[in-house]
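## tool: complex_structure
## caller: assistant
## args:
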Amino acid sequence: QKEVEQNSGPLSVPEGAIASLNCTYSDRGSQSFFWYRQYSGKSPELIMSIYSNGDKEDGRFTAQLNKASQYVSLLIRDSQPSDSATYLCAALNRDDKIIFGKGTRLHILP
Amino acid sequence: KAGVTQTPRYLIKTRGQQVTLSCSPISGHRSVSWYQQTPGQGLQFLFEYFSETQRNKGNFPGRFSGRQFSNSRSEMNVSTLELGDSALYLCASSLKETLGDRGLGQETQYFGPGTRLLVL
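## result:
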């Protein structure tokens, strides 16, 4: 089973600071990567997708991909209490399956 | 455009029973995937259906099965329920038409609200 690994957290970040979430994947054939946010008791909702090496920005969110290091990250600028949630990293692997990490719990401190 | 819908939202069953869950994808989406989410294992892929055919499958026992109808609606069935089947079952739809579609966003999956199954 090809893995996607995330630190389970919780990661505590003061309001207004930058939250940095990290993810590594083992299948070098993976080409598409996703970050989902999941509030407690709710289903995952897509934040960002990234396919190419480098950075991709969308509002307060920046996804970073480094295929050589098999590393994906998500930066959240100006963190808000409403950003408190579990963040799931996912990769579409060479078997055409989307594999999810177990998620990082993020807690924004007011 | 309406999102992915799932019914029922909550279910309580006893060991040995069977259960059928339903999923309607986003209009225009023909790919439907099913996932099981538990606190210990996270989100695990069950199977994917496209054009009424199962085209990808995860590592779950044969008690877990599914099907897709011509209108892209999908059902998932679990027979002979076990306590460990208690989980949130999530359905996701995407625009992915063929295996290997990737990089243009069509493989992005959009999740329904889930069905929470409790097996007693």
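## assistant note: The interface with chain A takes residues 33, 35, 41-45, 48, 56, 58-59, 88, 90, 99-100, 102-103, 105, 107-114 of chain B (CB under 8 Å). Residues 25 and 61 of chain B are 25 Å apart (CA to CA). Handing back to user.
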